[in-house]
């Protein structure tokens, strides 16, 4: 209706951030800007954290009987303020509420875009505002995140990094670095960003991005025997034994097909050592995709053999994907979600191979700053995410469309069309469950739309769902043994 929405809270916690994420999912999708979700939420969280920190600083000085406007008091207080926040998080939340220190989020739909403003009810000190403006100016000088890494890679918790993230995210998303404003008025501090409906064109080029694209272009195509097998698989009149004879000629492919047929991804009564039987178990219509998946893994393993942990994660994601499909009555897509899970992170292998130190730093920032996914930082730091790299590989190898879309959107389920939504949402959920088990994510990072689809939009129901998946997987693996 064009009216401003105002939402107030005293402290940021996971429930509030999760709620805001759900809210902006709806706002952005209704304005055809879903692809900005990760950028907006990352920037917004930085702004909210800084607003709460500013209020907490006033509370701290007040409790310590220090005058924040007195330079000596200020310098003394700031020496202990950071440790105070870390050690008294629960106390801070209650005290901020008791003293009525609050943060308000203002959202208004304009004729040419959406304005998001975060205010906190204390004025910013003039010297602090000058520092922030200097940081903004410095941040605008960086071309990409590789330059930031060179300058401040040893200070991932430094306050300057939040400003750099904000500026780079806004610039590289097409929103524009000048859309960010911070000012003080009537004893309040305001930080705002304007999201225009017409985004600015952007072109990110740097050495790492070029190297990644070169790596993709240099990947070998499938060998002739695989291409011939693909042709045979697309002909519904091809006898199974003719395909089996071809597969047997390739020992590594034979092992892959038998391994997949005997894995927990396919339900069988007993182990099979026969290629003909394996094809029957897998299903003729899925054999082509499995041949492609096995061949893709072989090519990547030969070039990037050190990334076995990624394959282990993909295997587990594939298994969980299949069991989620079975558990939720989506048996018809079991094999598709299994393969989508198996290949969802193929882009990460090439990303890691180009600059391991940088990607490790990105992962560390993602964890420490509680950013929902590393994809958004990959995009602003390198100009391309591992999801997009995976999509490029999938297209190069002519993978089925559902695999291309699942690889591309496995971190952004809200941005995929209806045709493959169930496949993607299952893989997205399975991927997150694996990350939760590895302590890389938690329940509050999951998209509300996905949780609602599977009726687990309650933490206790989700935990029960997760526990049942573990039991199903364990039972199946025990049967195979």
Description:
By secondary structure, the chain is of the alpha+beta class. It has 23 helices and five strands. It has helices at 14-30, 37-63, 71-87, 89-98, 126-139, 145-152, 159-173, 207-218, 224-234, 240-248, 251-261, 275-282, 284-303, 308-327, 334-343, 346-354, 356-368, 375-382, 386-396, 401-409, 421-437, 448-453, 459-480, and strands spanning 5-9, 103-109, 113-120, 180-185, 188-196. It has a five-stranded antiparallel β-sheet. Strand 2 and strand 3 form a beta hairpin. Helix 1 (14-30) packs antiparallel against helix 2, helix 2 (37-63) packs across helix 3 (71-87) and helix 7 packs across helix 18. The longest helix has 27 residues, at 37-63. It is elongated, with a radius of gyration of 25 Å.
Question: Brief overview, please?
Answer:
The chain has 481 residues and is α+β, with helices and mostly antiparallel strands. The protein has helices at residues 14-30, 37-63, 71-87, 89-98, 126-139, 145-152, 159-173, 207-218, 224-234, 240-248, 251-261, 275-282, 284-303, 308-327, 334-343, 346-354, 356-368, 375-382, 386-396, 401-409, 421-437, 448-453, 459-480, and strands at 5-9, 103-109, 113-120, 180-185, 188-196.
């Amino acid at each position: 209706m064009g009216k401003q929405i105002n939402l107030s809270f005293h402290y940021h916690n996971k429930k509030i951030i999760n709620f805001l994420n759900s809210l902006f999912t709806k706002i952005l999708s209704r304005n055809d800007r879903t692809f900005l979700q990760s950028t907006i939420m990352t920037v917004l969280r930085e702004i909210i954290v800084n607003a709460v920190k500013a209020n907490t600083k006033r509370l701290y000085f007040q409790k310590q009987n220090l005058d924040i406007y007195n330079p000596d008091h200020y310098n003394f207080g700031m020496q202990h303020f950071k440790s105070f926040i870390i050690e008294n998080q629960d106390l801070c939340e209650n005290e901020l509420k008791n003293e009525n220190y609050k943060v308000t989020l203002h959202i208004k739909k304009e004729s040419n875009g959406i304005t998001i403003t975060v205010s906190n009810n204390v004025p910013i000190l003039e010297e602090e505002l000058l520092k922030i403006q200097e940081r903004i100016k410095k941040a605008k000088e960086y071309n990409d995140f590789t330059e930031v890494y060179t300058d401040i890679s040893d200070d991932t918790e430094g306050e300057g990094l939040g400003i750099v993230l904000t500026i780079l995210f806004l610039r590289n998303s097409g929103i524009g670095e000048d859309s960010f404003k911070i000012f003080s008025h009537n004893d309040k501090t305001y930080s705002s960003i304007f999201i225009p409906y017409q985004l600015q064109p952007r072109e990110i080029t740097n050495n790492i991005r070029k190297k990644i694209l070169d790596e993709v272009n240099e990947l070998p195509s499938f060998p002739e025997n695989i291409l011939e097998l693909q042709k045979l698989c697309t002909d519904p009149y091809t006898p199974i034994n003719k395909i089996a004879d071809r597969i047997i000629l390739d020992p590594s492919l034979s092992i892959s097909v038998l391994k997949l047929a005997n894995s927990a991804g396919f339900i069988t009564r007993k182990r099979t050592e026969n290629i003909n039987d394996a094809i029957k178990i897998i299903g003729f219509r899925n054999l082509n995709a499995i041949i492609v998946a096995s061949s893709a893994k072989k090519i990547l393993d030969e070039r990037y053999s050190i990334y076995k942990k990624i394959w282990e994660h993909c295997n587990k994601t594939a298994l969980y994907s299949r069991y989620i499909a079975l558990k939720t009555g989506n048996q018809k897509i079991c094999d598709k979600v299994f393969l989508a899970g198996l290949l969802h992170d193929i882009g990460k292998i090439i990303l890691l191979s180009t600059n391991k130190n940088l990607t490790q730093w990105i992962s560390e920032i993602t964890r420490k700053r509680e950013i929902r996914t590393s994809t958004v930082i990959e995009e602003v730091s390198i100009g391309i995410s591992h999801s997009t790299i995976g999509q490029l590989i999938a297209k190069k190898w002519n993978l089925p469309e559902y695999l291309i879309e699942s690889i591309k959107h496995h971190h952004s389920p809200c941005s995929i069309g209806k045709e493959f939504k169930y496949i993607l949402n299952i893989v997205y959920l399975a991927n997150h469950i694996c990350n939760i088990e590895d302590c890389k994510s938690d329940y509050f990072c999951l998209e509300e739309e996905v949780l609602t689809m599977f009726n687990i939009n309650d933490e206790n129901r989700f935990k029960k769902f997760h526990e049942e998946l573990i039991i199903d997987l364990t039972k199946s693996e025990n049967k195979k043994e």
